User: Fold this.
Amino acid sequence: MRLKKTNPVPLKVLALLALLSMAFMTDVATAETLNFAQAVQRALSQNPDILIAGAQIGQAQAAVRQSDAARLPKVTASINVTRTDDALNAFGLKLSQRNATFNDFGAGEFNPVNPNVLNIAPHSLNYPDAVNNFNTRLEAQLPLYTGGMIEGHAEQARAYLRAAQQGDALARQKVIFDVLRAYEGVHTARAYENVARQARNAAESYVKTTESLFRGGVVVKSDLLSAKVHLEDVKVQQAQAENAVQQALDQLHLLLGMPLAAPLDVAGDVDVRPLEGTLADSQADALKSNPGLAALRNQLDAAQAAIKVARAGKYPQAGLLARVDTNDNAIGFDAHSYTLGGQVSWQLFDGGVVSGGIQRAQASRDEIAARLAQAENGIAYQVADAWRRADEAQRRVMARELAASQAGEAQRLVEKRYANGVTTITELLGAQAQLDKTRADLVAAHYELKVQRANARLAVGRLQPDQL
Assistant:
């Protein structure tokens, strides 16, 4: 036998194929595969809600520092430049500069022999020349008693800080819940894709079987056409499942803040354990651990502190003052003086301004208390609802597993009967459709179970990757 001589493949073509192969291998190699904990960490690092919560914590921390600083003395340095010919101020500035003379009193106009000398208005005193003054001042003020205002502001700031921290914890758990749904959504979409692939394999097998039976005269042509139509329908379903996988990955891309073109894959699925104990235990735990409720309780503490701040207006204010001045008619630091003092002030009547502020603060506290009570009832309901839905999902998983097993056995028997020519293609395709449906229902049940268990943990306030 003579072998046919083939033309060798050009080197340029081989080189191009090699480059394409390397490029494909590079794309595959650079695809980032994240497990659930890594996906959560990625999302938490860039999620807008987390960034907002972090900024709110920063504001609250600054407010705490600001309230603590109110207890310390305030030191002020100032430089003031004045030029005036006002009689009182000009004479006072000369005294401050230690430059006052008898002539400033109009001594040159005093005539002791004039019986009306005491009624003469000294021109130098009443119409002085303009005086320049350069004043430098260093002043310290220390509050001694503010009626509880400083303490109230400090309590309010610390309560808001705790509320912001709890708000951050709540935002983080919500992000974790969203990541879980998107992450498991990828696994669920791939499970649907696997169901579609099995359905296509079965449909292709039915076409081959029906073609063989048709050639043998066992079935009519309509059966073959039905099998082919069913195959095309299954191909469409498979394409939809493949698109669903890509859509699930795109959603995860968006949640993680990654470009859609960036290669991304997920590692193993997440096993979400049920909450331990009874429903009543979980509801009681939620009232203690839910960060949203904790944030509201801290806001209530802040509102109570605001009442304390408002009531401070009914009490006296006391403080100390220490001041050092220098005064000169030119730039300099001559004529030193100091001032030490204390002050106590008490506003006895303000027309009801302070009382109105107290009433407004109390109303704000009552509003937050009502919102807290409403939120506590809502969380108790949310826990119960998620608990029941998780229990239903668990039962659904068990039922779907049994249904899938039964449908698989039924499909196997119908397929044998069809191969032996004792049943119709309609019954065969119906059995396969039922098997495909039960498999898809089982996938959906597993996803729903994980989501509802995670939802229950979110309501309780115990949704962390290490707690699943």
About this structure: The mean pLDDT is 89. The CA atoms of residues 293 and 372 lie 7 Å apart. The beta strands are 32-34, 74-84, 131-145, 264-266, 317-328, 336-345. The chain is about 65% helix and 10% strand.
